[in-house]
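Follow-up to my post from last week.
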Amino acid sequence: MVTYVFLVAAVVAVVFSLVTIAHRNPVVNVLSLAIVFFALSAIYAVVGMDFLAAIQLIVYSGAVLVLFLFVIMLLNIRSVERLGSGRPLQAALGAAAAIAVGVAIVLVIGKQAPTFGSLLPGTGKGTAFAIGRSLMTTHLFPFEFISVLLLAALIGALVLARKEER
Amino acid sequence: MDQPLYQFIVIPLVKIVVILGVLSLIVAYLTFFERKVLAYIQVRLGPNRVGPRGWLQPVADALKLLVKEDLVPGGAQKFVFMLAPALIIVPAFLVFAVIPFGPATRLFGLLPEAIPPYLTDVNIALLFVLGISSIGVYGIILGGWASNNKFSLMGALRSGAQMISYEVPMGFAIISVLLMAGSLSLVKIVEAQQSSHLWFIFPGLLGFGIYFICGVAETNRNPFDLPEAESELVAGFHTEYSGMKFAFFFLAEYTNMLVVSSLATVLFLGGWLRPFPNVAWLGFLGIVPPFVWFALKVAGFIFVYLWFRGTFPRYRFDQLMHVGWKWLLPLSLANVLLVGLIVLLVKG
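User reply:
Got it. Predicted complex:
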């Protein structure tokens, strides 16, 4: 059961990732990305990371992608010109390099990542309780540090967006 | 093998059918009650022609909307235009999978064993509700965009900005409840109010106020109904919709009112518990079944919604953003600190 749900969600995620980068209409791109995020959320839920699944929905689908849609609508982009470089050799080399990096990532993660079964529902590793506890104990410093970093980015964005005083 | 089959398929299916049926009926009649309450507030009669005292009005409305011509404007993005009403109504109903209407019950001895009336209780129910209901904003934004109409688009943009802005203080108001309950499960939150002998509205009055204001804004109701400000935007994001698609937007709005009211009841008013669950001499109140208490509390919130609509003028957009970011957000942050401090002092 878990494997089937995972497989369906994984296939959906891969297919719509391709649509996200290939389609010409930017709204379709964002919608496909939304479907990818739903599929990811389903994968998180099915391997027992229920907290992560909910956060994925709330933050990425509910807020970030809505802002993407906003920008596209405000700029009123209806479709994007295909950006052909006219250099097939470079394009082929770029694709080959991308695939090589992808294979390398899969190999490295495949060696290090925990096996599939260790994150199944009931192991309690992905619950809100476990994640909250680890954020407040073992990972307290990185957690606080990242929040300071985000604050700095926020203030930076405000400074950049502010109009010059007369 | 019968036991799992009967437990995992038949009971949930029956529950889904009952919940969907009852919800649809309630939502349909909410439109009727809204018109009646508004009529009484404005000293007029309201709908009173169809059926006895107008009670069959929702049926007539539904028939009218079903047989109306379904127009799709030229230049609209047809697929997205069709998708948007579904995107807004499905999350609204989906949320009710985890809303606890009452404790496990035998339905006055009709059932052999006690069965909880809600569909399921997951340990991140509250996050599930927030996550699913944040999808509803897609329906509004995409509906407004796909209509190829400037009023629709402006209504959609307003709505998107409003819903994202008010989700933030709403989240902080909910966090204050989490601090008191110590759980994300809605059933556990109600049980925590039972075991602490206290509805969370008393320690969390500020959080409750922030939650309900944000809830009204999230459902795009008066005085935060800018997305469909009819004097400026014709009807906002659903200007170009007709027939059953328009009805879906309308039903979703009412269902979302029910969601916000139910959540407010669970988080702050003790869910299905009777008033003052700690006072012994009020024990006679226990005669009323728990889900009736739940329904009464939700009905109270719904009435406040209608009352708002009959009473308040609409905010201007800059006022809306001002209230959301400069008042509600700092207040809700302060509330989290305050409640956290109290919880720390009381519970040690």
